[in-house]
Amino acid sequence: MTAHPYSVNLRERQTAYFWLALIAWGVSLLMGRFFEIISWTPPVWLDVPGVLAIFGLLCSWFEKQLWRLAPIRALGISTPMIAGRWSGAARSSYDDYVEGHRITATIHQTWTTISICVESQHSRSRSSAAAISIGIENSIIYCFENQPKVGAPDTMHSHGGTTALRIGPDKLEGEYYSGRDRQNMGTMTLERVK
Known about the structure:
By secondary structure, the protein is an alpha+beta fold.
């Protein structure tokens, strides 16, 4: 599943990169001092990691794992963690909201990238852009591309759309609408699969 960047209305990314750069600078100084103490000069073919290399490694580690850890989050990382498997139902204007259609969602998320795949009996959609809003009520808005499965009704065809979901502790709930060709809208309720 191809992930794409997502935006968030916080300044935590700038702050975190600043601190990671300071830590990288400090680690680089400590490594230099350590090599002086042990009187060792690395061979020419072995370059000692510089500040930028250390910064890059720290950023990669932070992006994939560190931002999820409780002690790091306690320092001010507020981006909601919504990665995982979700299960629920959608109701559509296509059938006047009468029938609830079972859906599942798989969300892959790092600190700066996300991929949302929602699957129903007749189609599968993938996110193409997303934004998380932090406030009184946390939410995610994302654009998607939907592809019908083999055996889907003849009226269903590929289309784009937008979904807006409120983010709860273990619940995503909100509305979606599809592009001009489908002109459907509906509701979605998803609960995290433990």
